[in-house]
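I have been asked to look over a protein record a colleague put together. Alongside the sequence sits a line of tokens, each denoting a local backbone shape. Please read both lines and tell me whether the tokens look consistent with the sequence. I do not need a full report, just your reasoning and any doubts. I have pasted the whole thing underneath without changing anything.
>
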Amino acid sequence: MKETEAKAYIYLKSRLRQRQRLYDFALTDYVCSSLVLSVLKHENEALSNAEKRASDEVHSLSERVQRLQASLGTIQSAKEVREEQVKLQNS
């Protein structure tokens, strides 16, 4: 009877070690998955912020281009008026 009990004890101890390894693996997998998820969330937030900054910069540059075009139009008109005045004075 003691030999049978010893075999049962060894078997149960072996199964317990297997279960512990499976638990440890699952826990490690969960921790790794959580870490990866955390990193991905952080990267997503960083990309979102970068996209917002880029969009704001494009909007700002578009406004600047419009102001420069308006200034160039004003300068061109003033140049044409001066040229007309010079023509009138020379004739």
Notes: The helical segments are 2-90. The chain has one helix and no strands. The chain has one domain: 1-91. Residues 1-91 form one domain.
